[in-house]
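Figure 6 in text form: structure in, sequence out.
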């Protein structure tokens, strides 16, 4: 007799992701945490209809950017918007080695491991990744997340609750030079430098504690 109630098998990459995040012992000690600064380039801003073109990420640990621990993944463009090429420069017939969306997302999840995600306007990048995961019938990401916009709101002396800061504005405030803007890896590196400047300023008046920083993400909290 066929068992129609057989439990659906979860892909191994997703089982590994959940296990690593839920069982990580690193989060209690800030210096032990591997952060991953993340940026995505996309065909647009519609979560349902647009797609990721490139994922760029670089690791940060113990207040250092680990340039050797970086990744840049280009995705085959099944969805293409020529209007966005002038922003990110990624062409449908470009020379970059491109992976299918499924292969790209699996590769990124493997790279991510148990790291804490850091991004500017994190909700956008993470939601785009979560939509790709949904198409793989898994997700959403369980990784802890930080947003440089909301960390600044915690640090700023003035009332900035309603203001949304651009990456350019924060780089000017924290004196971060901007190189390779609007490339996924370039923006990830800028975000990494910004995060280090922010945490250096934050710890002047606070102990560096991951969960305090996570609590600045009131837009991400359930």
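Output sequence:
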């Amino acid at each position: 007799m066929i068992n129609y109630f057989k439990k659906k098998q979860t892909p191994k990459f997703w089982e590994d992701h959940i296990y690593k995040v839920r069982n990580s012992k690193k989060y209690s000690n800030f210096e032990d945490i591997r952060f991953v600064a993340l940026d995505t380039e996309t065909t647009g801003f519609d979560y349902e209809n647009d797609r990721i073109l490139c994922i760029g990420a670089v690791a940060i640990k113990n207040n250092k950017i680990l340039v050797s621990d970086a990744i840049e993944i280009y995705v085959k463009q099944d969805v293409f918007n020529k209007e966005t090429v002038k922003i990110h420069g990624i062409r449908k017939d470009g020379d970059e080695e491109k992976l299918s969306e499924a292969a790209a997302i699996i590769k990124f999840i493997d790279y991510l491991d148990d790291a804490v995600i850091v991004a500017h306007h994190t909700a956008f990048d993470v939601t785009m990744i979560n939509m790709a995961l949904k198409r793989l019938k898994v997700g959403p990401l369980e990784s802890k997340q930080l947003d440089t916009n909301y960390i600044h709101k915690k640090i700023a002396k003035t009332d900035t609750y309603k203001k949304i800061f651009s990456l350019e504005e924060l780089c000017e405030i924290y004196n971060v030079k901007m190189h390779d803007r609007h490339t996924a890896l370039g923006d990830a590196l800028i975000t990494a430098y910004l995060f280090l400047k922010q945490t250096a300023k934050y710890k002047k008046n606070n102990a560096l504690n991951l969960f305090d920083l996570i609590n600045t993400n009131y837009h991400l909290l359930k």
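Caption detail: The longest strand covers residues 64-75.
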